[in-house]
Amino acid sequence: MTGIAGEIARFDNVGLRYGPDREVLCDVGFTLHAGHFYFLTGASGAGKSSLLRMLYLAQRPSRGMISLFGTDAITLPRHRLPGFRRRIGVVYQDYRLVPHLSAFDNVALPLRVAGVPERDVVQPVKDMLEWVGLADRMGARPATLSGGEQQRVAIARAVIGRPELLVADEPTGNVDPEMAIKLLRLFEALNRLGTTVVVATHDLHLLQKVPGSLIMRLDRGRMSDPTGALRYPPRRENAQP
Amino acid sequence: MNLPGMNLDDEQVQIPHRPLAPTGGPVDPAPAAPRRGWFSGRAALSGSGEGKLAGWRAFGSGGEGVLVPQARLSGPTPWVIAIMVTITVIAAATGLALRNIANAAALDLAGGVSVQIIEAQAPVRAAQAQAAQKALLGVPGVISARVVPQAELDQLLVPWLGAGMSDGDMVPVPAMIDVRIDGAANGARIAALRAALGRVAPGARVDAQSHWLAPVFEAMDSLRWLALSMIGLLALALTAAVLLSARSALGTHRRTIEIVHNLGGTDAQIARIFQRSMGMDATLGSLVGMVLGQIAVMVLGARFAGLGAGLLAGGVLRPLDWAVVALVPVAAVVLAMLTARLSVLIALRRML
Q1: Claim to verify: residue B167 and residue B82 sit in the same structural domain
Q2: Same domain assignment for residues B138 and B261
Q3: Is residue B147 domain-shared with residue B262, that is, in the same domain?
Q4: Quick one: pLDDT at residue A228?
Q5: Can you give the pLDDT at residue B227?
Q6: Does B298 fall in a domain?
Q7: Fewer Cβ neighbours under 10 Å: the N or C end of chain A?
Q8: Taking a contact as any Cβ pair under 8 Å apart, which residues of chain A between 22 and 41 contact chain B?
Q9: Are B300 and B77 in contact (CB under 8 A)?
């Protein structure tokens, strides 16, 4: 199935149910357009993480249709999933760094998974760690890094492959407010280069920090579009790389 | 490219420039096969970020930064494999030795026929034996017919009757003629010999030597099957042990696997990590098992050789047999790696 040009993701009547319980997501529908910055808000338990899991292909919906990069993601054969996942960067609230790998190796992981030759791995990883301000912590294991440092490594890992879509699930949940703003700056910088960014957060103060961002709201598994911008997004020129 | 370093306080953060993947349009039908590198098992980058090459299994520095840390010989799996390979090597060597014994004995006895001249009176018995020998040599296909000397017969009976008891007429012992014919002593050939003897020694008893030892051959055959069954059972046990080990490793490293999966790692890449890990365990275990098994086989061989028994002498392992025994650890490694790969692939199928 081919989608509309400039359309990164589209959810139509998506429902998700874990086991026999009621649906945690119900009739969710929205479209993510290329180059936009989205906030996904909602109270804890509203279904933000479940929605994101479907967005970064870690979960299939119980019903509905999901289109990613113009392709039907529901009927996507298993062997094609890794190719799609490599186009999506994911940042988790709990960082999910490999504990026995150094910061350098954690950031290098997506490149190595993609089969990038070692000679092409070293410099980009160094640059990325320098970019997030961890040039002097390259050899450090996650356990020896602070929460903010771990999250910066996680962000570096998520963006090292220059994904088209960056999904962040409560990325500022475990860092202090000052660091939260700094991390948002990183997402903004990436967004300026054309990456579509989706940040899930229940911290409403963050929404004001990114001018022009679009807001999706989940309330007990149902999507609302408070700004109306999800259905009718404002025209915006993508930043040039 | 402007790399501002720690620039998080800057209002305009700049990202190290790399070309952005094209937006929109169809995606590559499948992820590109990774070139030789980290996941293909050749090179690994130092965890210190200095870019040193480490071992083929390493995913980080010096084996410490491996994606799936390996317990080496400190875990139970290599030792379980070592024990299984030891027993399999002994079973395989035993099966091969029994086969050699059976083959040697069968070759020895195939054309052998024993003729007993059963006559109470010694002079008549001796005369019939001589006449029977002549008659047997006249039968087509008979290569030799040797009358076993009385002294030799007496010697054979000493363990049962004691010294001197079988001499003369104290205990009449049948005269024996050891006959060799070309080919196997089947029913027709035995009948021809009986017919030839009918005229000169009507009471003679003719038996194929292989017939006497048939129960022994059957017992050996059973032992060979037992050895084969043991090898089969051990292979099953090894498979089960590897399955348990792989499942345990999957459980332990589930989070790491999920991370790699979400980063676009393929099932084959993840399976390869576990396959290599198990391959290393199996190689170490198999080497230990092979050495222990070989020592056991050599010690047992030396003990049996010391018996000096004719039948057992045929059980010596030949170079080809040793080559077959040497295949046991190789087969164990292949089986372990295959089992690990398949079990991981099946487990990954349950994930999205």
Answers
A1: no
A2: no
A3: no
A4: 67
A5: 83
A6: yes
A7: N
A8: 34-35
A9: no
- Which structural domain range is residue B325 located in? 72-105+215-349
Residues 248-307 of B with CB under 8 A from A: 255-256, 258-267, 269
Contact B178, B114 (CB under 8 A): yes
Contact A108 B261 (CB under 8 A): no
Together in a domain, B330 and B224: yes
- pLDDT tens for each residue of B171-204: 778 889 988 888 777 788 888 888 888 888 888 8
Contact A58 B8 (CB under 8 A): no
Within B19-149, strands assigned E span 112-117, 142-147
Specify burial of residue A167 (Cβ count, 10 A radius: 0-12, 13-18, 19+).
Answer: buried
Token representation of residue B7 = 């620039």
Please identify, among B158, B178, B203, the residue that sits at the C-terminal boundary of a domain: B203
d(CA B181, CA B184): 8
Q: Which residues 50-69 of B have a C-beta within 8 angstroms of A?
A: 51, 53, 59-61, 64-67, 69
B175 in the same domain as B147: yes
Residue B27: pLDDT over 70: no
Residue B259 lies in a domain: yes
Strand partners, A25: A16
Contact between chains at A113 and B264 (C-beta distance less than 8 A): yes
Judgement on whether residues B244 and B313 belong to the same structural domain of the protein: yes
Scan residues 147-166 of A and list those with Cβ closer than 8 Å to B. 157, 159, 161-164
Q: Of the residues B203, B230, B254, which one is the last residue of a structural domain? A: B203
Q: What does the angle CA B22 – CA B23 – CA B26 come to, to the nearest 5 degrees?
A: 90
Residue of A104, A118, A135 with shortest CB distance to B5: A135
| A27-86 pLDDT per residue, tens | 999 899 999 999 999 888 889 999 999 999 999 999 999 999 999 999 888 889 999 999
Whether residue B8 lies inside any domain: the answer is: no
CA distances from B33 to A90, B145, B242 (A): 22, 76, 28
Give the C-alpha separation, A205 to A132, whole Å: 23
pLDDT tens digits along A101-141: 999 999 999 998 888 888 899 999 999 999 888 999 999 99
Residue contact A194–B260, C-beta within 8 A: no
Look at residue B60 and tell me whether its pLDDT is greater than 60: no
A115 and B256 within 8 Å at the Cβ level: the answer is: no
The answer on B328 and B256 residing in a single domain is yes
- Do the Cβ atoms of B37 and A112 come within 8 Å? yes
Q: With beta carbons under 8 A apart, name residues in chain A contacting B263.
A: 85-86, 109-110, 113, 157
Q: With a threshold of 0.90, tell me whether the complex ipTM lies above it.
A: no
For A63, counting Cβ atoms within 10 Å of its Cβ (0-12 exposed, 13-18 middle, 19+ buried), the class is: middle
The answer to whether residue B14 is domain-embedded is no
Nearest to B27 among A84, A135, A157 (CB): A84
CA A47 to chain B, closest CA, distance in angstroms equals 19
How many domains is chain B built from?
2
Residue B167 sits in the same domain as residue B227 = no
A-facing residues of B in 190-249 (CB < 8 A) are: none
